[in-house]
Give the backbone structure.
Amino acid sequence: MPAFLSIFSRYLSVSVVLLSLLSGCGKPQDPQFIESEKAKGLVPEIRQAISTELAETFGTVPAPEAPLWFPIERGGIEGKIRSVKERNEQGRITRLKIKYEQDAPEVVAGDVIEIVLDPETILEAELKAAEEGRVSEAYPYKVTVGEFSKISGIITLSEPLCDLAEKGSPCIVKPNETLRTGRELYKQYCQKCHAATGDGNGPQAHMLKPKPRDLRLGVVKYTTTKTNIKASTEDLRNLLKGGIPGTAMPTFPILGNHEIDALAQYTKYLSMRGEIERGLCIESEIDFSQANLDEQLEEAETAEEKQKVTEQFQEEMQEFLKIDFPEIAFDIALDVTEKWSQADEPESKLEPSVPRPDGTGPSKAEPSISSLANGKILYLSTSAQCASCHGLTGKGDGDQVSKVQKKPDGSEYDEPGLHDVWGNVVEPRDLTYGVFHGATDPSDDIANVVFRAIAAGVKGTPMPAYGGKGLTDDQIWDLVNYIFFLAGDYKDVAPESLDVKPKAKAKAK
Ligand code: HEC
Ligand code: HEC
């Protein structure tokens, strides 16, 4: 049975609606999250189920929230129930006192209090209640404050809190504060390009190339993590401090660490929301796309047959929504949250090896001729194929750029050129400029940035990952050196001197 997703957030939605009604007066309306194109291809009932699941898990634009178990620092003040002052007839708490871990916050009517219950306890209670056809004693685990007495410290709740809470139960007051701060900052600094939903279609987007990122795929190109691993929280922070050199993605030097943090969390929030939506769409569209239904209806000849098709479709869909959908939603959320957590683990980081084969450290110290010559051989080799994309001289004009490429499904793209996972044409970097987009962290050594791009690839783009399988670390450093040579860094090295046969024969496996 269901998703912790909804368990963790079902009851806040009521207060969220109230809050948004209250804060809506007079001010310009906050935009709403918009549906993805994929979702629009599904039948209305499934679209509705996805949108409800997302709202229960992630809240709304003005009131973002996330389940406690998500790897998002969503904010809030931790405490414990100091004493239960009153319960109602069903055993639910109506008045209580809280003891805080840190300084007691200013609690006002409308603030949210969330009880932290063990997910298994919740699940057990929910299953039992479902069997007996009643509301689980684990609900609601989130309620709002009705009244707070500064003198006695007693909180009177605006609705009764779950039976399972007791003296000593951990709780969080004002959960999701960081996300709310993140949202405010996002609106001010990011929305014009990335749009409220994070789809990258903000009002300024049409002017930009490359386009602002569609965050909903959860793919971040420039990271310090290994191949196929998401961006670490630190990567997101550095990105916001340093921007992406060579693109419209700006730096935000005026923002303090606290603000950068909130924005990094909010970026993760929008990504996870998008990924879960996408996952739900992919799982649902197999059987419940509008096109699928229309096709079946078209094939049915008589009105009677059409009626039958509709009925069977309805039946299968209701079954899917009741049984499969909650499980799928939970599995997708688990997968997405695990991947984001993994990115923050120390072993996920790609640490360029030092020293380089010529004995120097990672900085751009002048390399040996033999390292540069090795780099050149590798760059032009048929195994590494750098030149097929980046061109013989590194100008980004290799053969592949003018070819029409195949999509993952085997069909061809409409226009020639390499494409990224967002479906846009992406140009191989012109290496002669010496501007590297992955240099988002100004304190990072530029040679490390280039090393990582070659070793781990540029995520979401055709730039392959060569580390581990194709090239050794030494070979990658040779390539790094050669790339700086292409960018004109070693002017006193005569190009002909690189055509000598290198001592150690460079060969990509
Ligand atoms: C002027 C437009 C603009 C603004 C404002 C802007 N961005 Fe971007 N952003 C971009 C562009 C363009 C890219 C894509 C660059 C590329 O594809 O290499 C991008 C990329 C990103 C990425 C993906 C990074 C990667 O390595 O894949 C993230 C995350 C991001 N922006 C977050 C933000 C956040 C958060 C804010 C606000 C603090 C913000 N952006 C403000 C234009 C903008
Ligand atoms: C299939 C085409 C393809 C091949 C093969 C390829 N690249 Fe790339 N490379 C790209 C694309 C596309 C980008 C731009 C990705 C982006 O940032 O959007 C890129 C980007 C880069 C960057 C820039 C990273 C940054 O942070 O700006 C470097 C450096 C690079 N490639 C080096 C290499 C080297 C060295 C090889 C061979 C070992 C190679 N590439 C092979 C397509 C390719």
About this structure: The first strand starts at residue 77 and ends at 87.
